[in-house]
TrEMBL record:
<dbReference type="GO" id="GO:0000801">
    <property type="term" value="C:central element"/>
</dbReference>
<feature type="coiled-coil region">
    <location>
        <begin position="164"/>
        <end position="194"/>
    </location>
</feature>
<protein>
    <submittedName>
        <fullName>Synaptonemal complex central element protein 2</fullName>
    </submittedName>
</protein>
<dbReference type="GO" id="GO:0007130">
    <property type="term" value="P:synaptonemal complex assembly"/>
</dbReference>
<feature type="region of interest" description="Disordered">
    <location>
        <begin position="67"/>
        <end position="95"/>
    </location>
</feature>
<keyword id="KW-0175">Coiled coil</keyword>
<feature type="compositionally biased region" description="Basic and acidic residues">
    <location>
        <begin position="67"/>
        <end position="80"/>
    </location>
</feature>
<dbReference type="InterPro" id="IPR034609">
    <property type="entry name" value="Syce2"/>
</dbReference>
Amino acid sequence: RYCDLAAQITETIGDQLVKKRKKNLKKVVFWIAHKTAAIMSTEEFQFQEPEQEQDKSNSLFFTNSERNELSDNPLRKDSPKTLLPNANVSGGRPDSKASNYFIALDSTIESLQERTQQLIDKINENRKKDHVLMNNFRESLLMKVSSLAEKLEESVFPVYDHNNKLIQDKLQELSEIMEKIRQIENELKQVCHTVEMMYKDLCGQPE
């Protein structure tokens, strides 16, 4: 019974530790996802802002160039598409921004993966430590329960012995009393038989 109680206590404590570890793991995963989303949104905003500024500068550049060329050469008013090569040359900067953005994003994801793996390893290590701790606690609890049971047996056995002796003494007295009652019963039978004989003798004598 004491061993079952110890096992139930150990199992309850183990379940509480496992629930706590799962709760901490959920918090860590939620924090990592939130951090990743925040970093991605920040880098997207930083990437879009220079791209918008570049588009604005390119549009201003094209407008000024077109105005200057049209003012210098009126024959080119009908063909503004000749500035497309310059647009392609100036459009190389967003590509470099995009590549830098994806490189930074990959490095951020790798760092987050490393941190996640480190946290998972730490959680697994703590789980192993908790498992060892629970085993040690179970063993120590079983030892304490067994020692307590032995002490209880040692304290209860003298009481049992004392009560057993008292019961044996009472039974001995009862057997002696029953023997005396049997002797008295035999004596009463003899007295009754004697009285009966005397009564018959008295009744058989003439008046």
